UniProtKB/TrEMBL annotation:
Signal peptide: none annotated. SUPFAM superfamilies: Metallo-hydrolase/oxidoreductase (SSF56281). Pfam families: Anti-Pycsar_Apyc1. InterPro entries: RibonucZ/Hydroxyglut_hydro. It comes from Cucumis melo var. makuwa. Gene3D superfamilies: Ribonuclease Z/Hydroxyacylglutathione hydrolase-like. This is Nuclear ribonuclease Z.
């Protein structure tokens, strides 16, 4: 991809009206992206200047300076060389790309192959992080890696807002007094971090019950996969392939004989369908609904077998405490 062929401003990267035209606004954040299970996943937060996974490298993703890769499956990482190359084409600064530490060398080797093929530098800042490690993105924003549970090495990313607050002892002081204290080396502030945005990538629902992921369930926005929606695919099947089923997210704990109408609409009332939903207590249907403290939840990575109407219908049946807080990314369906 020769740089001399580019005659456009980088603004052109965001101007195509046919590219990811829908977009959504959730909890104050505009969100762009596509996420179709097995095809491509790329979720973009333009105001944070970052994208989670790169899919086939949708146009809007190219202008994001930070990219976080959850795992090495092609529908999540396939467009990575093109992302780096296109930024070079437009003479944009090298992006910062975070990948699981276990695949960093493989990603570097992948880029090296494309450097030879493309006869270009493919400059980027490639960082490998593992669960529990953090990276500062700017003064008011950092990211921490959290554990997810897929069929290959995977990880999620949790963004924290970082704010400095004046200690109570100094609240009544004038600006000059505070300045003098600061110049004298007195620590007059303390740091507040709040979980802002969490992204799971592909995972089973085990990430929800991981005691180290409490902040993930407290983030203002949780972007999580829900590959399957109804009883044509069992929870057992979803878990076997490292995915989450909507039944695990949104059904209330109930005793078997008490089946509300909305659940009857979601599942065929037969033992085969129900048995795949049980956990240790055979009288209970899996329920994680009450664990989510997020202000908003964005479901992604639906199977390509579903239509937009089917996705929206399934979400509309979610009971309290999830009703009204859950949205779906349906671009491309």
């Amino acid at each position: 991809m020769a740089a001399g062929t580019a005659n456009f401003s980088s603004k052109n990267l965001d101007s195509n009206p046919m590219e990811m035209s829908k977009g959504i606004q959730i909890a104050g954040y505009p969100i762009k992206g596509l996420s179709i299970g097995g095809h491509e996943t790329c979720v973009i937060f333009p105001t944070l200047n970052l994208a989670f996974d790169i899919g086939r490298c949708p146009q809007k993703a190219i202008s994001q300076d930070f990219l976080f890769i959850s795992h090495g499956h092609m529908d999540h990482i396939g467009g990575l060389p093109l992302y780096v190359a296109t930024r070079g084409l437009y003479k944009m600064r090298p992006p910062t790309i975070v990948v699981p530490k276990s695949i960093k060398n493989d990603v570097e080797n992948l880029l090296e192959v494309h450097r030879r093929l493309d006869q270009s530098e493919l400059r980027c800042n490639l960082i490998g992080l593992e669960v529990g490690e953090e990276l500062s993105l700017r003064r008011d924003l950092k990211v921490r890696v959290f554990r997810t549970y897929h069929v290959i090495d995977s990880q999620g990313y949790l963004l924290y807002s970082v704010k400095q607050k004046l200690k109570k002892d100094y609240l009544g002081l004038s600006g000059n007094e505070i300045k003098k204290l600061r110049l004298s080396g007195v620590e007059i502030t303390y740091t507040i971090t709040e979980p802002e945005v969490a992204f799971t990538g592909d995972t089973t629902s085990d990430f929800i019950v991981d005691e180290n992921n409490i902040d993930v369930l407290r983030a203002k926005i949780l972007v999580m996969e829900s590959t399957f929606l109804e009883n044509r695919v069992t929870v057992e099947h979803a878990r076997e392939y490292g995915h989450t089923h909507l039944f695990e997210v949104g059904l209330l704990n109930i005793v078997i004989p008490v089946i509300p109408v909305f659940i009857q609409q979601l599942i065929s009332y037969n033992f085969t369908s129900l048995s795949a939903l049980y956990v240790d207590d055979p009288t209970q249907i899996i329920n994680h609904a009450k664990k989510f403290k997020n202000k908003a939840i964005l479901l992604i990575h639906f199977s390509a077998r579903y239509t937009t109407e089917e996705i929206q219908e399934a979400i509309s049946t979610l009971p309290p405490p999830l009703a009204g807080r859950v949205s779906a990314l349906t671009e491309g369906f």
